[in-house]
């Protein structure tokens, strides 16, 4: 019946944002403690099933223990996630109400962003459900970032008025937390610095740049451009995703070549803006 204890401990370890190696070490240490407690219960006269249940009961719920370990290893992570969720909700509802008051137009699409905000809020407050935190938190942060894209209209990046300064703060905080979640490696990981450079460049240019390019193209469609111009974003993003994957896979064998290929990453993502920038640049010289 050791499988029950293994599953229990694994769910605890998965509540942390630590690297795979650190999580494995945590798993082994916790498992040994739980098994010791089980053995003590067996020596006290309980059956193996009863002993395992007693050991699990003594340690407590997986989500609560994992949350405590997460806070101990990554202090203030919960507070930062909570701040991100609150700021995101403030911006979304603030923009919706502002539009409703100023133009008497209900921008319902703005409220779609609450899906991403709610996902971040879940991880900030969750002490009940045991999930693979690192994976799902990274996806929640990406989702929150992408759902902010349609909200850029009317404000621009830095915007105007009281809502203006909130947006760049949200984006920077979102990216910071995403970096801190994705770029957590064990100390002895080979090519650790190179991996961080690759992830940082790709996350920044891929998400921020891709989102900005998508927004610009959507604006162009609003002025009558064909929907086919979205291919200018879709195709480079697919190429970028493939190159990103290849860089991670090939890094152990060809570290210098992979780092050099970041130039190609920049060129691929820069192409997304080219069809928009070129006509504008040409107009400057007319």
Descriptive labels:
286 residues; mainly alpha; 3 domains; 13 helices; disordered C terminus
State the total count of DSSP E strands: 0
Instruction: Assign the structural class, choosing from mainly alpha, mainly beta, alpha/beta, alpha+beta, or little secondary structure.
Output: mainly alpha
Rg to the nearest angstrom? Answer: 24 Å
Give the low-confidence spans: 154-160, 281-286
Tally of domains: 3
Shape: flat
H-E string: HHHHHHHHHHHHH
How many helices? Answer: 13
* Oligomer class: single chain
Helix content: over 70%
Q: What profile does the largest beta sheet have?
A: none
- How far the N terminus sits from the C terminus, by CA atoms, comes to 79 Å
Assess the beta-strand content as a share of residues.
under 5%
Average pLDDT number: 77
Keywords: Membrane, Transmembrane, Transmembrane helix
Transmembrane segments: 80-97, 109-128, 135-152, 158-179, 200-223, 229-250, 257-277
InterPro entries: Perm_prefix_1
Any overview of this molecule?
- The protein has 286 residues and is an all-alpha fold.
- The protein has 3 domains: 2-69, no CATH class; 76-184; 190-286, no CATH class.
- Helices cover 73% and strands 0% of the residues.
- It contains 13 helices and no strands.
- Helix 1 (2-13) runs antiparallel to helix 2 (20-43) and helix 2 packs across helix 3 (48-59).
- The chain is flat, with a radius of gyration of 24 Å.
- Mean pLDDT is 77; it is low at 154-160 and 281-286.
- The chain crosses the membrane at residues 80-97, 109-128, 135-152, 158-179, 200-223, 229-250, 257-277.
- Keywords: Membrane, Transmembrane, Transmembrane helix.
- InterPro entries: Perm_prefix_1 (IPR047928).
């Amino acid at each position: 019946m050791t499988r029950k204890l293994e599953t229990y401990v694994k769910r605890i370890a998965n509540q942390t944002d630590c690297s795979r190696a650190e999580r494995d070490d945590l798993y082994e240490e916790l498992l040994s403690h739980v098994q010791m407690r089980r053995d003590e219960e067996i020596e006290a006269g309980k059956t193996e099933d009863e002993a395992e249940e007693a050991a699990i009961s003594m340690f407590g719920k997986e989500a609560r223990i994992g949350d405590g370990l997460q806070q101990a290893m990554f202090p203030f992570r919960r507070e930062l996630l909570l701040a991100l969720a609150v700021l995101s909700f403030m911006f979304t509802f603030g923009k919706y109400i502002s539009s409703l008051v100023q133009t008497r137009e209900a921008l319902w699409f703005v409220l779609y962003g609450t899906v991403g905000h709610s996902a971040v809020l879940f991880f900030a407050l969750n002490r009940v459900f045991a999930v693979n935190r690192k994976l799902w938190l990274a996806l929640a942060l990406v989702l929150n970032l992408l759902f902010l894209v349609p909200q850029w209209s009317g404000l621009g990046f830095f915007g105007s008025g009281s809502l203006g300064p909130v947006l760049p703060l949200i984006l920077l905080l979102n990216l910071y937390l995403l970096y801190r979640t994705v770029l957590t490696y064990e100390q002895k990981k080979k090519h650790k610095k190179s991996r961080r450079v690759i992830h940082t460049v790709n996350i920044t240019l891929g998400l921020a740049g891709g989102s900005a390019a998508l927004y610009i193209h959507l604006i162009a469609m609003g002025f009558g451009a064909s929907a086919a111009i979205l291919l200018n974003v879709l195709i480079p993003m697919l190429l970028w995703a493939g190159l990103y994957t290849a860089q991670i896979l090939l890094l152990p064998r060809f570290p210098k070549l992979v780092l050099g290929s970041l130039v190609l990453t920049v060129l691929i993502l820069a192409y997304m803006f080219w069809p928009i920038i070129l006509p504008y640049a040409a107009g400057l010289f007319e």
